[in-house]
Design a protein that fits this description.
Layout lengths: L1 E2 L3 H9 L3 E7 L11 E6 L2 H4 L4
Antiparallel strand pairs: 1-3, 2-3
Length: 52
């Protein structure tokens, strides 16, 4: 899970075969540079076999 504004953090799970499963409000007020939306990723057996 990472903040939506942190694009580089989103690239890592995507490259490892994770799939975005949810976007939800972050906990508490967003800090400087954050969007306040958390992106949740999940690795499933189907996506794990795809690889980079």
């Amino acid at each position: 899970m990472h903040d939506l504004a942190n694009v580089r953090s989103g690239a890592i799970p995507r490259r490892l075969g994770f799939v975005e499963v949810e976007r939800r409000p972050g906990q508490g007020p967003p800090l400087s540079g954050e969007s306040g939306t958390d992106v949740v990723w999940r690795l499933t057996p189907d996506t794990a076999s795809e690889g980079p």
